[in-house]
Amino acid sequence: MAIHKKIGRWFNVHEEEIGLFMWTVALLFLVRSSGIFLNNYAETAFLKRYGVEYMPIVNMINAVVTFFVMGVMTGFMTRLPGARLLSRLFIFCGLSVACIRAIIPFGIDLIYPALFMLKSQYEVLLALLFWNLANDLFNTRQSKRLFPLITAGGVIGQILGSFATPLVARWLHLDNLLLVYMVTALAGSWAVHAMGNRYPTLLFQQKKEGPKKKRATMIEEFKAVLPMIRSSVLVKILVVLTFMPNVVIPIMNYQFNFAVNEQFATESGLIEFFSYFRGVLNIVSLVILLFVGKLYDRFGLPVALMFHPFNYMLVFITFLFRFDAVAAMYARMSANIIRTTINIPATAVVTGLFPESYRAMIRPFLRGTVVRIGLFLGSGLILLSDTLFHPRYLSLVAMPFVLAWLVTPFVLKRRYAAILLDLVADDRIDFRSLDAGELGQVFRDKQIQTSLIRRFQRESGENRLWYGRLLKSVSVPDLDAHLLAALGDEPDMQTRIGLIEMLSDQAGTAAADVFSALIETRMPELAVAMIDAGHRISPQTFAPFHQQIFESALPLEVKARAVGSLYTVDPDRFAPIIQGWLASEDTDSLRAGVIAAGVCRDRRFAERLKSLLSTSDHDATLLLVLESLHSLNVTGLNPLVVLRLWDPDPRMRRAVIDVYQIEDETSLKNVIPLLGDDSKEIAGLAREKIRTAGYQNSLRLVKSLSLPRKKLREALFDLLSDMSIKDLDVFRFVQLQARTCYQLMVQARGIRQLSDGDLRNLLAIHLDERVWFTLQTTLRVLAAQDASGRMRMIARSLSSSDKRQRANSLEAMDDILDKSLARLLTPLLDDMDVSERIAAGRRLFPKEFHEPEKWDLFDGLLVSRNWVTLVLTLTLVRQLAVVPDDCSRIQALVEHDNPHVSQAAIELLEHNGFPTRAGDNHGKRSLDSLDR
């Protein structure tokens, strides 16, 4: 466990994620290591046994086959769970390659181009299914944190597989590398099955086949995108940036393979080269992946997009003058590094400028139609040149395309400002898809920033605020000066307030001078905004301005904010003023004191503010008190404010949730209902409160899914997804609920074996009802988890009085749920005797549910959190005159929060002559009604 914790701390993997994370890394390790064995062998065998001159035609056929294979795989993915499909694909890949190994001795040359294509198909399909499965296992927040580490595990697999290839080839013979691939592929299938057994919810949901969408033809894609190409310069640029690389990539790959094939005359020499070269290349990739951030951040986007074509130009020039393995290694390694670190991220940012509706049309067109045309053209050029000149001179064929590719970023740089401003003006830029760093790169160009500033200065009202926020988000230099200049000519007060809020903490004396001039407007809201900004920027710098406010004719509540800020500069002078206000009987003065205490954030005023929570009955004052206590970061307020969590005034609920702390299960249960609050702001605050709380209980959140309000359930699902809680927690919840049901049945049977009596029967019936209620809660959670709605129908049918309908529902439940879940629940829901159910529970939970002795039975019931169970058990123990073996548990119940439980414990202890350890008898109300 210590090693697991160290791994989690080093790599930022949460403790509950470590097991699943390690299995996922191991699975990708097997995918990549097996793929590298097959790749090294297939390329070597193709080049040496079939011929490098056939590579262009094989690549063209492979592109067509890929198109159809992906269509077939998409159909399978809609019908089968991802894990099952991945497992079967591993088996198919391994056995098919083993069959090819079996027919190699027959001398059929066509198996080598077939194997060359299969290795590409298998690599793509296994990676596709793996990442689909990984996306099912981890939510978006986990993905950003864990996927780079998981990818690193795959790269390590490629490194080890690469360096192991020549050793294995020498030990087992070159052709037997195919059998090694079969073994690693079957190991991958086993790993998927092992993950399924360890994490049953991996296969929790069957794939729901949705309506089939007709795949768009190439002509239809052209028709859809053609208007965008005509109207948008950026789309034209993206088409060129996608088309040109895919023309020259086949040419460079052909030259690479031709050069190394000529350099290494034997199969053993060639496979050793492929192995060691790819091993080193993957080590470099691993270093880049783990330690190098976004290199394109250091350049503007247009400049970043120039690196890749410029490097290709160098590659083709190098091939022209030096056509050997050294040039080939430089070509492949430099292209991979620049593509990974600069070109792919930069292109993604440019594509991400468009709104989602535009990207939905552009991306399939670029990645499908444009890529295929480019690859076909590149391969066709190789075929045409095959009989005309040496592959070295293909560099001359490729250079015009590289030159066009290289010119395109220069065109983008020259027209970048106009393109972006047009996108902004037409509201076609998707700012939500860009993070802060990417947004800064998009608007890094000085010309763009100058144009945005001019538009900011020309606009007014909400438009001016919009441009101001954009300028602030891209960190425009000297923005404070532009904001302060705009304050003077902006007529709208709310816009002025918005501009003031944008000022940075470095605004300084220039802002103080502008604020002093604006006091003459005598607008209270504007004055409050200026005071808050001045206090945030520098209380010392703005002290003269705040003194000017204090001496003005503005309302007292406005002056109070200025006094709060002045207190931080001169507490000896202003503390008596605040204390006097807080002690005043006058409501206005009291409110001024509360405001000033909140602004200055001095805890010396905390006790007075807390006392106002208990004594004040004026809601407006209480709102100010809560706001000030929140500013002071005062804790321990839960008992004083808990009842206000459900106040009808949303402002009060909003203020209370700010100061309420989630520190135990009770406080968590109090906040959960606010997730369904009518106010979106309050619901959002409750969500954030739960997500960031020091006390976390994912099981309580999952249990709350059984609550009846739909809005609350939807909010809980969103929160659970955000908090890395997935189907695995649901499985644990069902497992816990099933164990509880079996335990309650054992206890109910033990109670029925006692001497007959009404109280005994009442307790047994109560335990039976708890079993039923626990099952209903479990079914409702499963129904809420099932997006198809089938589980909800089954849950209703299981409560039917018709045995046939119940049996059919159980059968349907077996088909929907994972086998592990169905095995837990079926005995509880099936029509069978209690003893058979208990026997099934003992098989499911070995070493549990033994028949308890009399006191052990009662002792087990006394740990219940259900107060009715506790009261009935304590009363039955007293009625049967059972002498406890240890009265410490009963003595602890004397202090129980529920008065009925406390009273029952006191009466039992007094009946047996034990001390109660209670100062009083809580009124000593009789429980004779229960006896009767």
TrEMBL record:
The chain crosses the membrane at residues 20-42, 54-73, 85-104, 110-134, 146-172, 178-196, 233-253, 273-292, 299-321, 333-353, 365-385. Coiled coil: none annotated. Residues 919-932 have a biased composition (Basic and acidic residues). Residues 913-932 are annotated as: Disordered. The keyword Metal-binding does not apply. Keywords: ATP-binding, Membrane, Nucleotide-binding, Transmembrane, Transmembrane helix, Transport. It is found in: Membrane. It is a multi-pass membrane protein. GO terms for cellular component: membrane. One of its GO terms (molecular function) is ATP binding. The keyword Transmembrane helix applies. It comes from the Bacteria. PANTHER family: ADP,ATP CARRIER PROTEIN 1, PTHR31187. Belongs to the ADP/ATP translocase tlc family. This is ADP,ATP carrier protein. It comes from Desulfosarcina alkanivorans.
